[in-house]
Amino acid sequence: MVAVNDIYLLRNIWYHAMPSADLKRGKMVAKTLLNEPILFGRTNQGKAFAIRDLCPHRAVPLSCGWYDGETVQCCYHGWRFDEHGKCAEIPSLMPEQEMDLSRFDVRSYEVKEVQGNLWVYIPDPDRTKAQPPRFDVPRVPGFGDEVAPNVTYTMRFPCYIDHAVVGLMDPAHSPFVHRSWWWRGGTLNDEIKWFDPSPYGFTMRRHQMPEHMGRGYWLIGGLPENEIIFYLPGVRTEETTTPKNRVVNLTTVTPLTDDQTDVTFQLYWDIPWGNLLKPILPTLIRSFLGQDRDVVIKQQEGLKHESVLRLIKDSDTLARWYYQLKKEYQRSQDESREFVTPVKTQLLKWRA
Ligand code: FES
Ligand SMILES: [Fe+2]
């Protein structure tokens, strides 16, 4: 059983912030992530950055001001801050009024841009508990760092991050939630898969996909092999390969607040004619993710009256691992020790 009224968001970990393409040169984008106001920007030279979206003078959001590609200027008294959050100018000061501007620096966040995505490292807000990254941002397998996703789609789920993560990884909901003619029918099949621990998560071992798994796979050159990797805090890659082609889905889950969560679904492929699919994919992804979101919205209704979830063997094992991984990550930080994975290699069987 899992108590769901125990709400906490992992810190000292990388979160997906946005697709790189959403942040143009010389522009800024304000976002709330993990209840923190964050201002993302990209300098005229193309370097992405993130600072706290709050002027240290009188707390006006810096995003209400102006950005010229070099410094962000607050809209209230015009204080300026650079991409490191350093206070660069206080316009009201007379030339002879010397002041140590570094007293007014804004907190900055570490960012990383890989494979067309911007990631942000959210440290513990308590400086005594903040730690440097323990691991790098996850990579989409089989592609270099310079690629960008062919398709990207973000949908907001009005729920706490755990319900979005658990809903997306759940292996037993497909026949009931995803009833689309283009995906699969409502019949149940036996699923038997090996799972292994992997860094800060788990992996569904590479296997040949069975024929009933979907009607669209002939498009990428016959029955493919498939491998799924899950990473904390809520990142999943699903790699589908045939001898000729590779398609990888990257799904990231990022909490904005305790009850608003962004799910970003992206596809990377090396199929030469893949671009032909581009016009229809957003509609398909919206319909598919929308099914996951709609059932989570229904679940929110029930959760107003119930705070315990019952997780069964084997189909809820991935959900149990998620809760265990998350708890262990938090504990290992609280106790300043190495993370010890709770996941064991296991053969899981379920019907879906
Ligand atoms: S509140 Fe930002 S400059 Fe005064
Ligand atoms: Fe789903």
How many strand elements?
20
CATH H level, superfamily name of the largest domain: Naphthalene 1,2-dioxygenase Alpha Subunit, Chain A, domain 1
Uncertain residue ranges: none
Helix count, DSSP H or I runs of 4 or more residues: 4
Q: The biggest beta sheet, please?
A: 8 strands, antiparallel
**What fraction of residues sit in β-strands?**
25-35%
Oligomer: single chain
User: What class, by secondary structure content?
Assistant: alpha+beta
Q: What integer value in Å does the Rg equal? A: 22 Å
How many domain regions? 2
* Broad shape: globular
CATH architecture of the largest domain: Alpha-Beta Complex
Biggest sheet: strands side by side, in what order?
A: 12-18-17-16-15-14-13-20
Compute the average pLDDT. 94
Briefly, what is this?
The chain is of the alpha+beta class and 352 residues long. It has helices spanning 161-169, 174-177, 281-303, 317-334; strands at residues 2-3, 13-19, 28-33, 36-42, 48-52, 66-67, 72-73, 80-81, 87-89, 108-114, 117-122, 151-157, 190-198, 201-208, 225-231, 235-241, 246-257, 260-269, 308-309, 346-351.
